[in-house]
Design a protein that fits this description.
Elements (H helix, E strand, L loop, with lengths): L1 H9 L4 H32 L3 H13 L1 H12 L3 H25 L5 H4 L3 H22 L4 E2 L1 H4 L7 E2 L17 H5 L5
Antiparallel strand pairs: 1-2
Amino acid sequence: MKEQALAAITGHGPLLPFAAFLLLGAVIFAVASRLARAADTIADTTGLGRAWIGVILLGASTSLPEITTDINAALLDVPDIGVGDLMGSTLANMLILALLDLVYAKESILHKVAVNHAVVGLLAIALTMIAGIAIATGGFGRVELGSWLGGDESAVTEDRHRIRDPKHFLHPMTDEQHRHIPAA
């Protein structure tokens, strides 16, 4: 108990990261309402339309925390955090849309939005499906940055040995385990 209290006070326990998580979440919540109003003003001022400003400008700006989280997850070599963030965010956003459509008092939100959103929605479904297939099969290959920067490596290397057996979905193999699988 003493060790846990000391860890919490010194910032080595879960208390400080949890408090930071809650505080930063509150800041994002407070800023988001202003962001939506600003996007509406930009749409009216520029004449580009709310659908395009919502998809491009608002979508990009609200994705900045995810981009930062996922870059840091990659740098820290914790890809499950990054992928979990992206997939969880997609799932949460669709849940929010469904719930708002159910409880919006005037009429169905989905009946009021521009038809252009159907194309964006279908594209999002397709990209999520491609990502899911890539996760399930171990990916589609890698693009080596060295080749783009003038190195001798081939532009795309195949990673056929990473195709996973369905029994490994619950217990994915580590990179070290993948290296010991013979090539087909």
